[in-house]
Design brief:
This protein is mainly α. The chain contains six helices and no strands.
């Protein structure tokens, strides 16, 4: 059993490794960014900064995160959810997403024919969501690294003389 765990951890394409890379990037971001409030009003992308100035200080996409601070908080929140699990969300019943999903499953009638299709569908759903999770975690890792590097450039975090 121990050999199995070490083999999966050493595989660079394993889900565990992708999760560790994101958490490491988010931890590095958190350790590097000593004053997160300095990220306020800094556009998320460098291109966005020039576009905002060209458009009389009006961002083109008001729906998206407007500054690096909001993005920083988002990445920290996702990291915390991954490390500590999904916290109970304030819904009408106060139940967590998992509890709500289990309750919904219990309310659906199950027939013998449906069960066979459901099991083959579960494998398809698992692989679909696994691919999505790999993609999202890879993008989040890049975003955490980019935010850290941009903070260092903008704020001068890498230029301190000891």
């Amino acid at each position: 059993m121990m050999q199995l765990i070490s083999d999966s951890a050493s595989n660079k394409h394993s889900l565990i490794n992708v999760m560790h890379r994101f958490i490491a990037a988010a931890n590095n971001m958190d350790e590097t960014i000593m004053v997160p409030s300095l990220l306020r009003d800094m556009p998320l992308e460098e291109q966005a900064a020039s576009e905002v100035e060209a458009n009389n200080n009006v961002p083109q996409c008001p729906n998206k995160q407007r500054d690096m601070y909001e993005h920083y908080l988002l990445l920290k929140s996702i990291k915390n959810d991954m490390e500590w699990g999904m916290l109970k969300r304030e819904m009408s019943s106060g139940a967590s997403f998992l509890e709500m999903a289990v309750k919904q499953e219990e309310q659906q009638p199950v027939t013998g024919d449906l069960q066979t299709d459901e099991h083959t569908d579960l494998e398809h759903q698992f692989h679909f969501h696994l691919r999505g999770l790999f993609g999202v975690l890879s993008k989040l890792t890049l975003q955490a690294d980019n935010l850290t590097n941009r903070y260092k450039r903008e704020i001068g975090g890498g230029n301190f003389i000891r």
